[in-house]
Write a structure and sequence with these properties.
This protein is mainly α and 157 residues long. It is 48% helix and 11% strand.
Length: 157
């Protein structure tokens, strides 16, 4: 995990000299960049540390029609959270004195269950399953470097 203290000390004075509108613009730029990086990690099925997520549970072949088995096999080949990484669910915004990347709406509950590895119903009213923890949103060392580059670009412009 990146330590932001050094970055705060380095950029703190320059950030305080910015007008509120400039600060908000910079926060939004940072949030958008972090959203893009997190969406790319979700596409690659990795957590911020670079570790691969545990794959989907293999579909059961019992008590299913051939059509359902084929549908489940096709689902196995698709990446997880394809819709969750879309801009309509993965929001970037400037909020107060911070840049925020969050999953919103109904997808937020699903994201929480998977991010922390909680237990949830597979289908509404269906059986419970303990999902493995898959860190969906986070900050990596590469994000820390990107953040520094965004700040440098902003102050040089």
């Amino acid at each position: 995990m990146a330590d932001f203290t050094a970055l705060e000390d380095w950029a703190g004075d320059m950030l305080r000299k910015l007008q509120p509108q400039q600060q908000r613009r910079l926060q939004l730029d940072i949030a958008r960049r972090l959203r893009k990086d997190n969406a790319e990690r979700m596409r690659a099925q990795t957590d911020p540390d670079g570790n691969r997520w545990e794959p989907r549970k293999a579909p059961s072949t019992t008590l299913r029609s051939k059509r359902e088995q084929l549908r489940q096999q096709a689902k196995q080949r698709q990446p997880m959270f394809a819709k969750m990484r879309q801009v309509r669910h993965l929001k970037a915004k400037a909020q107060g004195n911070s840049a925020v990347v969050e999953i919103t709406g109904r997808a937020q509950r699903i994201a929480r269950v998977h991010h922390f590895g909680e237990s949830d119903a597979v289908t509404p009213g269906g059986p419970q399953y303990r999902y493995p923890a898959r860190e969906l949103i986070g900050i990596s060392q590469a994000d820390y470097d990107t953040l520094r580059d965004v700040l440098l670009d902003h102050f040089q412009a």
